[in-house]
Design goal:
The complex is a heterodimer. The longest helix of chain A is centred in the C-terminal third of the chain and has 35 residues. Chain A is an all-alpha fold. Chain A has 14 helices and no strands. Chain B is mainly α. Chain B is globular. The chains are: A mainly alpha, B mainly alpha.
């Protein structure tokens, strides 16, 4: 569940000075210092230290071991599989997100709130359960198991299962970003375009899309990060076959369980870099979205 | 939303006709949405419920209430509640610091709060284990004074605090940012102490957001797997979380057991999802009214 991440643009700049120059909204200095110390100590302990630990552990045995761990064939295969899973799931969920947002935000129908809740459902399901549901459907003992075996198709313990599980856990990202955004923007502009003779596709492409592009990008960035980093759901359906059904996070687990700590952390550092790049991109999108709001009359 | 663009001002007495559907594409987009949602989410999830009843209620109940499984519920729920509570306090402090104070590196802190959302859980798991193991940076300090974190239930708590931290900060922060200062000014001018103002004026405004963040962090923590299993130690009856029970049942090809536990977790997720939706509706209503003043 990443329910708390969404592109919210505050009308006011977050400037602490405004509060500190006002006697009514100012705390005594000792209160301020205590809160700052507590907050930042907690932040350093729980966020900064784990992040630093990844990189120091990865480089503990030197650069040579680090690079060897990354270019080893099993590692390369896991990178490929991770990219494949993201390359399938992100576009699928992007198309879904846009369709769902268009239907929900630009039209009226009964049961809209229920539909929004159902779209959010994958966020509140444990990743392990997310993997399990596909095992129950496509596994050897599942509903379609015997039929799949007859046709010699493999979904569970194979690449399709990994892709399916990834699609499931990243399902709501784009939709939940776009729906509130498109609802807030209303329909006037689209209706004007349609009345003036634009086709549905033209209306979407020239009117709606420019208005929601930052929200869309934001959803895609988060969706991609989760797709590449998912562990629990993928772990259930993967079967852990080295070089074949291991994604990057699963490869980290295998190395770690084999006590190859330096290699495990080397591969983990790739994922940590991905996380940092995600945060930078996210910040950039927030900044551009903010600028776009300011420019608008 | 106004429709004035389309309808020339209707007479006050005439009830406005039902809104005309002007925008195209409802059929195909709605169709695809429902198709994709059913295929990937609704049908697979219903498979769990159907499977769980397939072997009779007795088998389901026996699997869902086996002592080892019940111990895992207690651990998962207890640790998740505790982690969400700790995050409630420190998340509020962090959100307060980011919104109300100026300090060097504030932008960086603000951006890195989302790290647990972006960092793959397996990476968080092995990093926390490395930190708190006997020879880790923090384990080295804590073990001599008798506090063992890694491979103990305490380790689970640490991992759950890590993954839940952004939820509280990110739900409270926007409400705090949009909060008008007039209320606090009024309270101060009427002679309230700063603490009284916080407790009686600020805190009630933040309450819906705090509860929403708490519920989100709690729900996430109960289902969490990747960051916990490395640090937990995974001892039966002591440090096995519920998602791990599902995995271990699956590894023994005990599909009935795995499905039964998954059903319990799904029902719990649905209840929490409803609660969160309710809280969010309350929260936006509360804040909407505050904003209109």
């Amino acid at each position: 569940m990443a329910g708390a991440t969404s592109l919210t643009i505050s009308a006011k700049p977050a400037s602490g000075g405004r509060y500190q120059s006002n006697p009514a909204t100012r705390e005594a200095p000792w209160v301020r210092w205590t809160l700052l110390t507590l907050g930042l100590a907690f932040f350093a302990l729980f966020l900064i230290m784990p992040l630093l630990a990844v990189f120091t552990e990865a480089l503990r045995k030197g650069f040579q071991v680090y690079f060897d761990a990354l270019v080893e064939p099993d590692a390369l295969a896991s990178i490929q599989l991770t990219l494949l899973a993201a390359l399938v799931s992100v576009p699928l969920n992007l198309v879904f997100g846009v369709c769902a947002a268009w239907a929900i935000a630009k039209h009226d129908f009964r049961g809209k709130q229920l539909l929004i809740t159902l779209i959010d459902l994958p966020f509140s399901v444990s990743p392990v359960v997310a993997g399990l549901i596909y095992v129950l459907l496509f596994g050897a003992q599942g509903w379609f198991g015997p039929w799949l075996q007859e046709h010699d198709w493999k979904i569970i313990f194979a690449v399709p299962g990994i892709v399916l599980a990834t699609v499931f856990v990243t399902f709501p990202f784009v939709a939940r970003e776009l729906i509130p955004l498109m609802q807030a923007q209303g329909r006037d502009e689209e209706e004007a375009a349609t009345v003036l003779g634009a086709s549905g596709w033209q209306t979407f492409w020239y009117v709606t899309l420019p208005n929601v592009k930052w929200g869309l990008l934001y959803g895609v960035i988060l969706c991609n990060a989760r797709a590449m980093g998912e562990f629990g759901a993928v772990s259930v359906v993967s079967g852990h076959i080295r070089g074949q059904t291991n994604t990057l996070p699963l490869h980290v687990e295998i190395l770690y369980n084999e006590y190859q700590f330096a290699a495990a952390f080397a591969v983990a550092s790739l994922l940590a870099i991905l996380a940092l790049v995600t945060l930078v991109l996210k910040q950039f999108v927030e900044w551009r979205a903010h600028a776009a709001v300011k420019e608008a009359p | 939303m106004n429709t004035a663009v389309l309808s020339p001002a209707p007479l006050a007495a005439v009830r406005r006709p039902k809104r005309l559907r002007v925008l195209p594409g409802f059929g195909p987009t709605m169709g695809f949405t429902l198709f994709y949602l059913s295929l990937l989410v609704l049908i697979p999830i219903s498979a769990v419920f159907i499977k769980s009843t397939g072997h009779g209620f007795g088998a389901f109940w026996a699997a869902a209430t086996a002592p080892r499984v019940v111990a895992s519920y207690q651990l998962s729920f207890g640790a998740s509640l505790l982690a969400a509570s700790i995050n409630l306090l420190f998340g509020l402090i962090l959100a307060w610091c980011i919104v109300r104070y100026e300090f060097p590196g504030k932008k960086l802190v603000d951006a890195l709060i989302d790290l647990p959302f972006a960092l793959p859980t397996a990476v968080a798991g092995i990093a926390l284990t490395a930190l708190y193991a006997g020879n880790g940076w923090l384990g080295k300090l804590l073990e001599p004074i008798g506090i063992k974190v890694a491979f103990k239930p305490l380790g689970i708590l640490v991992a759950l605090i890590f993954i839940g931290l952004p939820f509280i900060v990110r739900t409270v922060q926007p409400v705090l940012e949009d909060m008008e200062t007039e209320l606090e000014e009024a309270a101060a001018s009427l002679g309230a102490h700063r603490w009284q103002t916080f407790r009686l004026v600020v805190l009630p405004t933040l309450l819906p957001a705090l509860l929403t963040g708490f519920a989100l962090a709690f729900a996430r923590a109960v289902g969490e797997y990747g960051s916990v299993i490395f640090i937990a130690g995974n001892l039966p009856m002591v440090s096995e979380i519920t998602p791990l029970m599902i995995i271990s049942k699956l590894e023994q090809y005990d599909y009935v057991g795995a499905t039964a536990i998954a059903t319990v977790m799904l029902v719990f997720s649905f209840v929490l999802l409803l609660a969160i939706n309710g809280l969010q509706a309350w929260s936006s209503k509360r804040n909407g009214q505050d904003g209109k003043r």
